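Researcher: Hi, I'm a grad student and pretty new to this. My advisor asked me to get structures for two proteins we've been looking at. I'm not sure of the right format, so I'll just paste the first sequence and hope you can take it from there.
Model: That works fine. Here's the first sequence with its structure tokens right after it:
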Amino acid sequence: MLETVRPDPIRSPGLERFAENGVKHGFFTRAGGVSSGIYRGLNAGVGSRDEAANVAENRSRIADWMGVAPTGLLTLYQVHSPDALVVREPFEGERPKADAMVTDRPGIALGVLAADCGPVLYADAQAGVVGAAHAGWKGALTGVLEATIEAMEGLGARRDRIVAVLGPSISVRNYEVGPEFVERFIATDATNDIYFHPSQNAGHAMFDLNRYTVARLNRAGVTAEMVDRCTYADEDDFYSYRRATHRGEPDYGRQISAIALEDR
């Protein structure tokens, strides 16, 4: 028998104040889903090896909470790119390969799947434009955050009115990286050294992806904040790729973060 608990996502104060303007958002946790085993909860990952019927039911519940039809809950084939798409209708056929979407149309929920990477939701409530980006280290480094803002501007948004919120992602205390990773960031910008902290393992460092993401958003001229929840540390609420890897588990679930414009 299916669990009947309704999803109850985390909401950000920065975006929740736009609810009266028809902006609806949620950073969904594992609560309220029907998946079991290593996928226990609200696994929204169509790319996982979870039972397809369970994923479909989970996504249907998410769509219902967001106030859209199941076909209106859109997620991309995420490839850690800097690419942002304008979306104005549900996808037909295969999901596009990209890592960010923007829209000015109601009835579409832009979703980001993540399991440690940073889901970023954007809104310019005055313009009626929203966006969603999947920002792992590679996407953040190569410009997906800024590309999303530029795509929103193409629909009439203004960056001085955009609020961007980073949802649950892996925290600095659980994100250890090797020397080649550090070198890549420093080679791009020497000031990036402030986002790395000493590790207990020689030659390694702890990377603050959250702080790096918010700093890039602020430099781009938008108002940015973060939910500040660690996906690796909080197993009850979140899936984590790195946690699953450390345990030698064969796969992992994905939580979803979504934003939509409501019909007015």
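Researcher: Oh nice, that was easy. Here's the second one.
Model: And its structure:
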Amino acid sequence: MLKMVTFFQGFPGQQSVPGTLNFAVSPQKPRSTSEAESETSMSEASSEDLMPSPEAPDGEEESAKKKEKKSKGLANMFSVFTKGKKKKKDQPRLSDLEVQPKPRPELDGPLPTVEELKEALEHGRLEVAWQVLALERQLEAAAAAGGMSNEELVWRQSKVEALYVLLCDQVLGVLRRPLEAAPERLSQALAVVSQEELEDRRASGGPLAAALEATRPRRWLQRWRGVVAEVAAERLDAQPATAPEGRSEAESRFLHMGRTMKEDLEVVVERLKPLFPDEFNVVRTYAESYHYHFASHLCALAQFELCERDTYLLLLWVQNLYPNDILNSPKLAQELQGVGLGSLLPPKQIRLLEAMFLSNEVTSVKQLMARALELESQRWTQDVAPQSLDGHCHSELAIDILQIISQGQTKAENITSDVGMQIKQLLLVELAALLRSAASSAPVRIQGTAASSRVDSTGSWHLLTSFVSKAPWQSSL
């Protein structure tokens, strides 16, 4: 009988570090031609160009004012998120940091240029997300005020969108591997996503200038869920470091996927849930992503013709190990109670597999019982005196048959109690057929030590029938 401890005990050289999610790094997607062109020309525009500008002074006065303006803009860019905060020697924990999004960016002074924001984002400075949002709002205000051609509005919007492409890559890169990020950086990434969700809701209620392309809702929270789904697929599809001996390929795959899902979700509950805002539903999101990929793999596997062992293992995982030892494990049961992940396979597919298992198991039990009867018949035809136990002839046949049937029933009950009840009735029918077959067989001769006598097989099988009817196993059937 397979036990859960057998499935989840680690293999040599394949022990995972408890509480660690080794999220795989996925290759970056190639940038489109339009994005590349936007970034190439990004340095040609600045935030001042997004609003109608007054007459610019000329000569040295113009140059001095521009330098002062640029310096002041950079100073404001780096001071937006540090006001009122003192630098501490110890790195703060993420749970102590504010991750609530601001209703609108409150910026003092002129904004940095597009080129400066691009450089800051390329260096991973997520705090400039608020300046990017301010640029977007300035552009909307300029479009609403008029005085700017449609071509110029579209051109300036492309610069802002190119900044958002960089910002999105940085934010999702952090959230793909949240345990590898510094606490403050993870806090910033979460705050940016939350702010973008607020902006999506704000923008949905107002009209957009005809010249501007509709860019909201951006749905960054939905994009993050897509990243989690990619991570789940990478984790579950990873090949085990070593292949255990004595296990089939399907069994090794079930073991790897089940253990990976359980360990990863425990890490999400223990380490990520306290850090993520409630709107992310981080436990539900990871659980649904892992469940979906696990179920997709098993559904594809169930379409193939499986051997008897793999059919049993598939049912064992779907009906027993997955719901009981993973979803209802001590660390996950309460967290997943309201998620409602459901079964890994649809009910119709489960019924087909159960019927296949019952047929395979009944056939196997019949073959084993027939083999046991054949071996016992061979011993009787050798004219060798049978074993004597307490003055009576003794045969192991009844015990062998009871063990064969009991093992078949135990396997079925490991799947579900209902499958155990179904196989119980089927095996009783097969046992009765075996007894009738043996009772009608020809007489055999046993050679005793003192004298020989003839005993027909009907009498011997009456003893077996009596033994079976009085055995403790019979009451369980």
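Researcher: Is there anything I should tell my advisor about the second?
Model: You could mention this: The chain has three domains: 19-50+93-218, 229-345, 356-476.
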